[in-house]
Design a protein that fits this description.
Blueprint (H helix, E strand, L loop, with lengths): L1 E7 L2 E7 L4 H7 L5 E2 L4 E6 L9 E6 L2 E7 L15 H10 L24
Antiparallel strand pairs: 1-2, 3-4, 4-5, 5-6
Length: about 120
């Protein structure tokens, strides 16, 4: 087991692990979930109810850019979002049981509900 010491101002951080380079550990922290191609990453989530299905949240660095249901419909108001080509290629390879739109634009298969506050 290796011990790495990082110091920043008044803080000292110790990292313990079997990794030869601390930079590898720090690189892993740059992404949320599973790393995709380039700066993209993905988190797979379970359904909230028995009527829902699995879904994915996709990030550019640490910022969510869209979410998509297993059937290819929008999740969390991601209607009309475009899936970047390099991310789409990785998603199709990683999740072959998911349906991704051929044109990489997420649309809804059903009615969209909006809440209006007055």
């Amino acid at each position: 087991m290796k011990r790495f010491k990082l110091e920043s101002g008044q803080f000292t951080i110790f990292i313990y692990g079997n990794v030869e380079e601390p930079a590898i550990l720090l690189q892993e922290a740059r992404h949320r979930g599973i790393s995709l191609a380039g700066p993209y990453s993905v988190d797979k989530h379970s359904p909230h109810t028995s009527k829902n299905d699995y879904y994915l949240h996709v990030y550019l660095k640490n910022n969510q850019i869209f979410a998509i249901n297993k059937d290819g419909t929008a999740h969390d108001c991601s209607h009309g979002c475009e899936i970047p080509r390099v991310a789409a290629d990785s998603l199709r390879a990683m999740f072959p049981d998911y349906k991704f739109p051929d044109n990489n634009i997420i649309e809804s298969s059903g009615p969209v509900e909006y809440l209006l506050y007055m």
